[in-house]
UniProtKB/TrEMBL annotation:
Coiled coil regions, renumbered to chain: none
Native organism: Dichomitus squalens
Name this polypeptide is given: Pentacotripeptide-repeat region of PRORP domain-containing protein
Segments of skewed composition (Low complexity): 43-63
Quaternary organization: Binds to mitochondrial small subunit 15S rRNA.
Amino acid sequence: MLPKVANQLFHHTHRAVVAVQNQTGHTLRNVLQLQSSSGSSTAVTGWGSSVSSGPGHSGPGPSKFHASGRLQTSHPQGTPISTQVGVRVEKLSAFRVPSQRSQHLAADPTSDASQLIRSGFGTYATLINTLTDRDFENHEAVRRAEARLRRRRRAAIDEGLEEEEKRIASLRGDSHFKSALALFQTAAVNPTSKFPLQVYNKLLRSCAIHSNVDAASAVYSHLEKRGDIYPDAQTYISLIETYASRHDLNGAESMFEQFKEASRFERVQWSFDAVAGHTSPEDLSYRQRASQTAVWNEMLTAYFRCGQPTEALGLLEQMMDTSAGETFHATDVPLPTSSTFARAITGFCQLGDVSTALAWFERMLQQDSPSRDPHATTRVPHRPDASTWTTMFDALADEGMVAEANRLFVRWQIIASQEGAAVWSDHRDCVLAANLRFMDTRTDLDQAKAHELLDFLTDHVLPWDIESGHFTFYRDTSRSLCQRLVMQYWNRGHTDDALDLAARIATRQLEVIRHGQAQGKFDSAQSQRRIEGTRRFATDVASEILFKTGPSAPLSSFLRLSALLTDVGALVPTALSESCLNAYAFQRASPALSLSTKDWEALLDIVVANEADSSATLNTLVDDLLMHSVDITAFSETAKNHLVRSLASNDMNSATLLAYLGEPFSSRLAELQRASQTSPSVQPQSFEANSPVEDIPGTPLSSSYSSGRVDTAYSQHVGEFYPGGNKISVLTAFKRFKSGAGKGIFPRPIVLARLISALGRLGEVEKIHEVYDAAQVVLNSLDTVKQWQTSGWFLIEDHMIVGLAHAGDIEAAHAHRQRILQQGGVPSADAYGALILNVKDTTDDTSNAMALFTESQNFGVVPNIFMYNTIISKLAKARKADYALQLFQDMKAQNIQPTSVTYGAVIAACCRVGDAASAELLFQEMTSEPTFKPRVPPYNTMMQLYTHTKPDRSRVLHYYNELLAANVQPTAHTYKLLIDAYGSIEPVDDSAMEKVFEQLVADRSVSVQGTHWAALINAWGCVQKDLDKALAVFDSIATHPTTKQNSSPMPDAVVYEALINTLVTVRRMDLVPPYLERLQSSGVHMTAYIANLLIKGYASVNEIERSREIFESLQDPQEGVAAPHNHLPHQNKQSNVLPVPAEAPVYREPSTWEAMVRAELGNGERERAVALLQRLQARMFPPAVYQRISGIMLDDSVSPWSDAPSSSPGFSS
């Protein structure tokens, strides 16, 4: 029999060791090697006889324990292996850091545990202890996690619930108890096996956790057979709890009776876990009484758990009516403790009888003495302790008894103050959650009562002290509940109260953190977690308010939200910044505008930080600060620094404002004032015409037509091209116009206006002016009918805006806009749409476009679909997705049906900021529209999102297949994206990439372009670092069949850029010169983006002088104008624009300055980098551009090969 037992023991020991290894690391790995090594020592000892074998043994049984030679270990003479194993297991188990608590075997060599270690059972005792400790720790972790789940659900927090539930399931899936029980059962087969009481109790504790009555019975039976050890109170507590957890009241009562019987015969040790630390002789009486009462308390709980409150109260009455005196007697009915009454209240709450629980709780509140020791017996009940308050608040909250919870909370604050106790954060969370849920469900609640309740929560439930350190936002529940409280104020119309409360809460959080740091309560990690929680609170409040109100909130509200975020160190989101700027644009002219100093500071922060905003917005703010006589000396130091850094020193208004700060700004103002007296002032560039209106070609002053008449039939003849005329029909209409005009016959003004805008779309500027000249004759002929003349004049001027804007003569278009405005009129939505559409080639296109849109709204222009499409497209290119979506919703609210162009633009906006969820929803909405006409741009946009922004090849292919299913022809850009998807998204699929290129070549509707070759070179060179393959692809371009069919020279600038990027990536700058020579000799114009890569590459190989030479060889474009000749070659479609001559100058982009600054810093030349920034500032770039580049100076990790934006837009993959 012994070999079989030994096999079982070895098997379960191995499982136990593996389980312990999971908690202690791999340090136990050699324990079983030592135990099962071959040699002269015993394989398993401690059974009363030795089972041994020599090296040559080949018989059955013990030979199974022999290990291979690599596991053999020599041991000191005379040292039993089992003893070494036991000592090693115990020491290694002590290395494990328990999550809750851990109790190890006694180190006293005379203790029972030490004797067992020497006899062999100590190893298993240690393992069982460790496994059951871990089981209990898991149980406690589950209990805490379930409590968190209840709190989060009560607080209506959905975030993180699924992860918490998975964690609970994982903890419950651990098999520590099974392994411990298997070890015990195997060892218990030996009649001489003995374990300390601690092992029995820990096993019984696990039995209670798992409601395993059979296992508890087996463990207790083994203990009962021991004549040398008695159970203690903890033994019976666990047994009663085990039966009660199965609702087996008879079993629980049986254990309780056995306890009382054992007490009569003095077969009980008076101890249990909660008083295990009371070991001194003077604590003996306390420990005995507390242990006895603990068993009775457990039986009280068992009655409640089994649904028998009457029996529970009967037991409690016995305890309250006991005649037990000061001297402890084992047979006495014990006096209750404060925990006894707490268990009764908990029992009623668990049964759902909250009213009865509340009645008992109220009776306890009437007592005079506070609760101190939960285990000290007393004849007079004490007031509830903090944990009992928690139980009561939880029950009231779950039952929706809000009034009772609020009343008790006020009482608790008074009592806690008297007793010097702390009101726990759980208590506040619970009362807040109950009230907020009540207000969410009671939409019919009277406004006055609702406001009163909100004020109660603010003044009484939220804490405002900073000393305690409680209720900080490291707790998601507290943060979320505070956010909901703020939004209750806001949603019920108390917006100022909401913003006041948000600011008070954030301020208090920061003060608590500072106080905690000063007092040493919070370390850096704890402080940072609380700071992040506070920032999350401010960000979520601002986002929710912005979502609720949109752009309609007052400017002061937006500014207060911005100040809230700034005060806690959170970033101001783009949507809020834009809302502030738009509200400012709308409300700045209002006489009711009244901003506080803090509001002006917040507005300054937004203007300075907004990348899309031009210096014109800052100048406008300066004008308003002067107009409203704002005292900037009262600004914070941060705000003053913003002004000093951002304002131009050569602007009179800026200098006037800064002069309030004293020297040296006062002297600068005086200098400018002297200069202004001797030279004309220079106005900033704007939409105003640079030439007088009279100088505009086509005005009546230079008309080639003197007189004529308007003919209705002739009007119809000329106007046949409208609507929807193509190029031929429009030019035919112009010929008819010319023919009639030569005879003095003209169409009506509406026909002339339509012809002007149609010619503009064809780029026929001279023809536009000729028609405009004729229109003046027509208008003069209407002199006797002023109303018709006036309306005709506005019509012609409006269409001149449209035609000239589409033709690219944007300056002349703005001149006609000014003529309309000067005459008290307003351009049409089509005119503004055309102006917005053709804002291009400036250093700040989006701000200029937004200025036009804002102007149109100020004048009351109702946008049409064309105007919406153009402004949304501009916002999309500037990554202003929030405002683009807002305009999209406004458009739908005005019953303007979005087109595929609209959807394409707003989808592009979401894609540019990586908002895949919104983009997918909008795409689905677009395709489900009954009027949907598939166009390629939205499909390409979605493919690009999942190619470059959020790489996911499966989604790229999904939208490609959608494109094919919609019978949409792939474009050159579609193929380029497919090449990138296979060539740059891991894992790279070379064969699929090559197959796509073959499909491209075979597709006669699409020509192979430089972007396709560039994508291949990028895939091989930059992604896979295969330089030879990348060079081979480049060399194959010149002789490829598609190159001969291409009208543009190949390789083009995009291809050269990809090749040089590869050489930079693999640090082979020695190969660059020959390819630059080929570029120049082939007639390809180099771009700034190629220069950027050269600057970066040479700097990375310590050839900074070469980088400087390249940078200085470039030229600067005209101020306020985007650098020409850099973007055109990178378009993904063929263009009729003439190619740029190879000898044309190469103009610097902002990214070129950034690349050079990085190069200097990366080579330790900080002074040179500063000099570059000074040159950059003198170029008058938009503040956002300068701030982005100058911000590199603050980055200590900068290097010439960091991820700077050196490549061309749209090229990098």
